[in-house]
Structure formats: C-alpha cells, structure tokens
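Technical appendix A lists one of the benchmark inputs used to test multi-chain prediction within the project. The record comprises two sequence entries:
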Amino acid sequence: MDILLQQIINGLVAGSIYALVALGYTMVYGILGLINFAHGEVVMFGAMIALSVIQLLFGSGVALPPAVIIGLGLAAAIPSCMLLGYTIERVAYRPLRHAPRLAPLITAIGMSIVLQNVAMMIWGRRYIPFPALLPVNTHPLGGAVITDLQIFIVLLALLLMASLEWLVQRTSLGRAMRATSQNPAIAGLMGINVNTIISITFVIGSALAAVAGVMVSAYYGIAHYYMGFMLGLKAFTAAVLGGIGNLRGAMVGGVLLGLIESLGAGYIGDLTGGVLGSNYQDVFAFFVLILVLIFRPTGLLGERIADRA
Amino acid sequence: MTPIRWYGIALAAILALTGCNKGTESGSAAEVVVRIGSAAPLTGPQSHLGKDNENGPRLAIEELNAQNFMIGGKRARFELVGKDDQADPKTAAIVAQELVDEKVSGVIGHLNSGTTRPAARIYSDAGIPEITPSATATDLTQQGYKTLFRMMANDSRQGTALAEFAVKKFGAKKIAVVDDRTAYGQGLADHFAEVAAADGATVVDREYVDDKKTEFRAILTAIKSKNPDLIFYGGMDTQAGPMIAQLKTLGIGAQFLSGDGARSPAFIQLGGAATEGAIASTPGLPLEKMPGGAAFAEKFTAKYGPIQNYSPFAYDAVMTLADAMQKAGSSEPARYLPALAAIKREGVTGPIEFDANGDLTNSAVTIYQVKDGRWQTLEVFGADTAGR
C-alpha cells in the first residue's frame, strides 16, 4: 500500500508539471486552432535561462539563501519566456493567421527545431546539472516518502492553475479571451482587440512554461537542449487526453497522465507477468491516450469546439 | 573548338589536378604521414567521455611527432582524424565509412559498445585495424573480425568481478538489477545477474530504462517494495547520477553498484552528495597501480584537464599501433596487422597482449568507491596484479 502511495505521489508531481505545460498548448489551441509545437522548447528555454542564472549566482560564491537564488532564476526566466512566446507568435504565426491550416502547423514544427538548435548553439549539447541548492528534507507520509521539493511543486502548480482559472472566469480579460476563442470575428466586432488577446494568451502560456521548466530542472536535477521535445509531446498528449481547448481538461489531463505513467512503470511488469518491462512505460501512457480517444474523441472533459472555417 | 571540346579539356585538367593528391603515403621522400582515426561521442551527454577518448590519442600523437619516430626507415608524422559518432550506432556507421574513405591507417574507437558493433564490421571489411579503448560488450570480439582489438577487459570479466564483489565481498543476498537496454548496459547487467545468481544471491527485481531517461522514481519505487540489499545499474554516468540522487530522496538504503560507464567525475557532479558510498568498476588497473599511470596523469591533466575515464587506454592504443607499425616497418594496414595481433609490450596501463579474438589477455578489473566526493580504489581483481 505504501508503494502504491509512493507511486501516486510521484505521479502527482510529474502530473502537475505536465498540467502546467499542457495549459499552454490548450490555450493556444482554444484561441487559434493551432497546436504550438514550439511550446516544449519555450519550457526548455525557461529551464536553461534559469539554470544559467542559478549556476552563475551559485558559482560566484555570493551568500544568498537558496530561495532567493531560485527566485532570481525564475525572475530571469519568466520575462525571457514571455518575450520568446510573444516573438514566436508575431514572427511565425500572425502572418499565417489566414493561411490554410497546414501552414501554421508546419511552421510550428519548424519553430520547434529552430529553437532546439539555437539552444544547442548557446548552451552546447551537454547535460547541465542543477546545483545542490535545495535541502533534501523528506517527510514520511503513510509509508511513503515525500520531499519538500515535491510538495512545493504540487502547491505552486495548484496555485498557478487556480490563478489562471480565476483570470479566465472572473476578469474582463478572461472574458475577452473566452469570447475570442468562441468566435474571433464577432469578438472583434464587440470591441475586443483580437491581436492583443492572442498575444496575451501566448505570453501567459509562456510564463507558465518558464515556471514548469524551472520545476523540471530542479526536480530531475539536469537540463539540456533536447528536453523540451519529449516533455512537450507528453504535455500535448495530456492536453488532448483532457480535451484540447479546455483549460480544466488540460489540468485534469496533465495530472492523470502523470499518474498513469507512474503507476504504469511501477506495475507494468506485474500486470503483464513479466512480458513487458518498465521500459514500456511511455508505450503505456500513449496506449491509454489511444483508448480514451477511441471511446471519447473529444477527450475526457472536451466539448466539441465550433469549427473555425 | 566546340563548347563540348572545351568542357572535355577542362574536365580532364581538373581530374588530373585532383588525382595528384590521393594516396595514403604522401609527404617528402624521407617522411611518411600516418593518419590515425578517432571516433567517440564529442557532442551529447557523453561528450565529456568522448573528448577524453580523443585527447588521449592527441597526447600520444604529439609525443610521437616530437620524438623522431621511424617506420620502415622513414620519419613518421602522425595526424589525428577525429570524428564525432554521438554515441549513436547509426552515426557511428557513417563515421566509420568516412574514416575508411579517408584511408586512415588505424582507428581508435569507438567509445560505446553499441557504436563499435556496426563500425567494427566496416573497418573489418576495409582491413583497417581498430583498437577500442573502452567498448566492453563481450560479443564484440566474438564476431570473427580480425581487425578489432580491445584495450581493456570485456564485460564478461567485468560482470564477473562485480558479481563476485557484490555477493562474496559485500555480502548482498537480494539484488535489484536495472539496465539501459543498450548493447553495453544490457550485456553487463545480464552477465552480472547471471553470475550473482550462480553465486547464490537472489535477483529480486529486473527493471529497464532507456539511455535518454531522467525520471526513475517509478521504477525505483517498485524496486523499493522488493527491499534489495544492493541495486546494480548497467549504463552510463549521465543517468546513474540522477538515478542515485532520486534513490536517496525515496529513502532507499540499498548499496548502489555500477560498471565503468558510471565511474567518472561526471557521475559525482550529477548525483551530488547522494553519490557518497557508491561503488563502480573499471576494467584495467587503477591509475596509481598502472606502470606509467602517475607520469601520464601529470602530462595529461596539464594539457587537457582531469582524466574522465578511458584516456590512458586510448593513449596506449595509439602507442600500440605505432609500435606495431614500427615492428612491421610499414603503416599499411595489411602489413602491420599481423605485428599488431602478435604484439607484446608494456604500456602505460600495464602489459598489452591480445588473444586470438582480440581481447586483452591482462584482465584486471578495479573496483572503486566514492569517498569524500572522489573515486577511490577499493579493490583490484585480476590475474597479473599484486593485490586481490
């Protein structure tokens, strides 16, 4: 039982990170009908920028508490990613606003490759370690073990998700975003500056991505130029699982995917009687996705979004 | 003349000019240029090991060029042709073909077993001798390639030494085995599990990752439930480091054991404080017991920084090739290959002699442990060493 609990804790933490990244995908899809494949790379950039700042501060020997160092790393990463997200939208997607659906999709993939290579040129191809800043305090929890970092990640993710929910449901900006995602043309007629709203959506998504990037590099201890690819793919899967275009769906999908992966990796050997080993954990996660889509094509919480011509 | 006549003459002229520069032995009459290829992952997660594997030959070649080395009555001028195989078997095959096309006289490479496997075939077909300083998968030398030689003991020997240590010296009764499904990791882990089981321990869990993963908590939690005394990981340092860190945060107290892939400074850097007490092996003698170890370490670290793992072996590989060329009086692969196969010399790393398959007859394996943030020698297993 305690092992199950441990797997659940692991899954929740990974899932919170997936959820944060999935929100970026789902918001952009909801408003533009575009899958922003470059989003995983924005996460990677957030992690790399923050890690560079953190390593600089850590290596310089300045006596700052770890929280301040990480805070400074975040303070560097979040505006940079917001700028990056804004730039990607202006440069790569806005010119193709009225192009056939395929063009922005290919552009997104291309943007992803460009960002990976820019990161490779800036930071090289090695794995950059996260300095040993954070104290590893473990707390026993019903037989399982949870660390401070894990608690922090889950709480921060919940806070951010709640804030986003509040923003979208309770503010006029959020109302404008919802209106734009329902019908951009009519929203424009109602006095909403559609371009501004779209840019703000990208910026918010990228800010969340920056935080997720710092979480990932702190949790796994390393960052490298290629980390955005698999993470982006899994987060996109999580968004689809929950219902793409649906904010709550992204949150649920993310957490669910994390849990499925964790439990799958832990129990797949027992479930299949040793036929499949734990190296099939990714297969397990995608297999669940396929099953969900067969029986519920719009995802778990998804409603059919009006087709944009 | 008609245009086509002009083109014909121009083409012939160009071909004549470029044709002049082909051939392996060029240079002045009293000098022979010997090109040695080096293949290792120079970029990517293993680049620190790959660069180490390239710098060893670089140092060797500098020394050879400085000492008026004679081959067949001519002064030899060595050149290094370094290539990046990114630890990827597909890239390795391309790189191997490039080296063959550039007509190198010998190759030091590759670093990983997974990359050496396809490359060895290409070198064998071209007849170019290859010495690998670090690829330890046992079956590499069992494919019948006459041109492949190894500079350190293979995984059969390493896995056996590790298993004997784990069961007999450390006293582990329940062992969990994890590997990264690469040619090296899987081979080593399988052999380790086999010998450990034969020695009386129980393998309570068998888990797998791949060589790109950084999240191990799920499988480590599953391992925790089986309560092993010792966890063995067959794979490289860029994963062993995060793995041991995550192991400790999950509160798993089992001893961590791994092979030569994890025994590098990068492991300690990536895993942090959690690596204290971890044990890993490297085939060959420890640096302090190597006949030329201290002198090599001094020369190497002055130029290239700390030794990562295999550079002494790569250095010895070049010296061995050079020695064989000198004995045969030629740097042509076909002529010096027999001398290489029969060679018997004392290298920096110890006695060098190859058996019929190309394996090193000296099969020492050293076990190290992380103490005070550094790898320190724990024990040496092997035929021709003083300790046991």
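The radius of gyration of chain A is 20 Å. Strands of chain A lie at 128-129, 138-141, 144-147, 222-223. Comparable benchmark entries are summarised in Table A2.
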